[in-house]
């Protein structure tokens, strides 16, 4: 006798299978990402932050608020992360050219890049 999964708002067995496959793909990506980060000598959180920054549409959009939104962090937690990354030499802060109230985050250039 096949077990029945609860049907919530039209979610069927095929939907659960797709969700499980999607979750597996996400976990696979995160595992690869964490390994790559450690091999590069940085923390997985620093790696995720750098991915978010490099993936931004426009350089002027990369603020602590943007990073908080991308990493699903509270703004004060994102600010702490940025402080650590600046101390490690991974990020540089510069004042926005268009609005001096904002600080723009940039990754530091890689050696040989």
Categorize the overall geometry.
extended
Overall pLDDT = 89
User: Based on DSSP secondary structure assignment, what is the total number of beta strands?
Assistant: 2
Task: Please state the structural category.
Answer: mainly alpha
Counted by DSSP, the helix tally is: 4
Evaluate the radius of gyration.
19 Å
Instruction: Tell me the strand order in the biggest sheet.
Output: 1-2
Question: Helix-strand pattern, N to C?
Answer: HHHHEE
Biggest sheet, open or closed, and with what strands and sense? 2 strands, antiparallel
Strand content: 5-15%
| CA(first)-CA(last) distance | 61 Å
**Regions with little confidence, pLDDT below 50 for 5+ residues:** none
What would you say this structure looks like, in words?
There is one protein chain. The protein is mainly alpha-helical and 113 residues long. 52% of the residues lie in helices and 9% in strands. The protein is built from four helices and two strands. It has helices spanning 13-39, 44-54, 64-71, 75-87; strands at 91-95, 103-107. The protein has a two-stranded antiparallel sheet. β1 (91-95) and β2 (103-107) form a beta hairpin. α1 (13-39) packs across α2 and α3 crosses α4 (75-87). The longest helix is centred in the first third of the chain and has 27 residues, at 13-39. The protein is extended.
């Amino acid at each position: 006798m096949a077990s029945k999964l609860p049907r919530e708002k039209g979610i069927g067995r095929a939907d659960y299978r797709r969700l499980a496959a999607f979750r597996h793909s996400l976990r696979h990506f995160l595992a690869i990402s964490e390994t790559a980060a450690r091999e590069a000598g940085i923390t997985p959180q620093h790696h995720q932050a750098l991915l978010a920054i490099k993936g931004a549409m426009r350089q002027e959009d990369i603020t602590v608020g943007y990073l908080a939104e991308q990493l699903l962090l509270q703004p004060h937690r994102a600010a702490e992360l940025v402080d650590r990354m600046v101390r490690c030499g991974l990020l540089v802060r510069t004042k926005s050219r268009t609005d001096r109230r904002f600080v723009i985050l940039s990754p530091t250039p890689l050696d040989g890049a």
